[in-house]
Amino acid sequence: MRVGRFWDRAGKVFSLLGLSLPSFWVGLVLILFFSVYLEWLPSSGSGTALHLIMPAFALGWYFAAAHMRLTRSSMLEVLGSEYIKLARLKGLPESLVICKHAFKNALIPVLTLAGINLVIMINVAVVVETVFAWPGIGRLLYEGITFRDFPVVQAVVLLGGIMIVAVNLLIDILYAVIDPRIRLER
């Protein structure tokens, strides 16, 4: 909404760093600072909410940055369109123009990215869960590959394939909910 101001520039730096830094490196730096130097958070394992903070940040920073960047560019594109200008000329409140008209139409590419990133997150989780010794599907896949447990690897890969199909179906259904011009036809 406020292009070129402090929060816009801070968001661009956040998204640039989030897209540039690999998750395993972010995890190792978090362990170094918050576990070794400051001794605020546990470095590995699971059990309490404190064990979840660093792995969640290391895993989610890339995806939050990608969504922030795409949402920003999509909103800027939609805010420059003719129907937004028309809605403002008709005297609609700015909050209604932004929430109902602009954001709803800018949400389509963001929703597509969210569906793709949900499935990609499992692949990235393999590395992050290994760095933090966190028990999860990624760690299960890593141990299955390490110990040559092929049924486990096949099950995790099959689960990933099923997730791709299910998430894409859900995204297609949500398109019709978000944008009334898109209808589910037979």
Short characterization:
This protein is mainly alpha-helical and 186 residues long.
Largest sheet: none
The H-and-E topology, N to C, reads as: HHHHHHH
CATH class bucket? Mainly Alpha
Number of strands: 0
Q: Output the structural class.
A: mainly alpha
Total number of distinct structural domains: 1
For this entry, what is the oligomeric state of its chains? single chain
Write down the overall mean pLDDT.
Answer: 87
N- and C-termini, Cα separation: 39 Å
Helicity level, as a percent range? over 70%
CATH architecture: Orthogonal Bundle
Strand proportion, as a percent range, falls in under 5%
CATH topology: MetI-like fold
Rg calculated over all Cα atoms: 21 Å
| Number of H- or I-type helical stretches | 7
CATH level-four homologous superfamily name: MetI-like
Regions with pLDDT < 50 over 5+ consecutive residues?
Answer: none
